[in-house]
Design a protein that fits this description.
CATH architecture of the largest domain: 2-Layer Sandwich
CATH class of the largest domain: Alpha Beta
CATH topology of the largest domain: Alpha-Beta Plaits
Distance between the termini: 9 Å
Structural class: alpha+beta
Radius of gyration: 19 Å
CATH superfamily of the largest domain: Pseudouridine synthase I, catalytic domain, C-terminal subdomain
Shape: globular
Amino acid sequence: MKQANDVVALTVAYDGAPFAGFQSQPGLETVQGRLEAALEIALGVPVHVTCAGRTDAGVHARAQVVSFTSTGHEPEPARLSRSLNALAGPHIAVRQVRRAVASFDARHSAIGRRYRYLIVDLPSPPVALKDRSWWVKRSLDVEAMREASRVLLGRHDFASFCVAESAREQPTMREITMLELERVSELGEECLELTVEGRSFLHSMVRVITGSLVEVGKGRRDAAWLEAALEAAERSAAGPTSPARGLTLWSVSYPEDVWR
């Protein structure tokens, strides 16, 4: 049974390249702006959405979660999904529509977020992955990167690994529950896949972690440097911010009891 005070949750994939990030910005094309415009046409009323992670310009999503308060008159999920895909495409795809309890919020109800970053460390540039990866042009020492990354696991102050302004506006303690580096083949191209998981992340945190680990992989820094950068709690202590195009919000997890 539909209840007007329920929440509707959309699982959304998008190509971040054409957008100035997820969050609405005056005069700019954003994922939120495109979704809200599509929802207003589909439902006949203005709709404000909340997302699980406000991705930056150029960052992609495989399974972003977006929620809004039900009007009580949404069509059945498959029909709403078809309508939104027709209205919001071609760079956005609504994969799933679910109803959640009234207290559900895509951002605050999440208990885990997983990000994936692709790095091509070959002398020749990627073709199929050119808009989905960071080409570093040289082979990286993956074992050194793995060794250095261990210090990042667990709960720490990640002020060194985020946009400096955001570190002044909010607490910077975060917990990384999983960080893995693996050689993989994507669309027939060899690359290095970095997967990071935690409950929540600071602004650009995964991209700064990636940039710092690449410094280690190039032999410019070592594991001791990464540990010192973490302890410094100062943005200038860590490595560069990696390009947005290599990052994808891979999945978001929630308690099972939030779904109707």
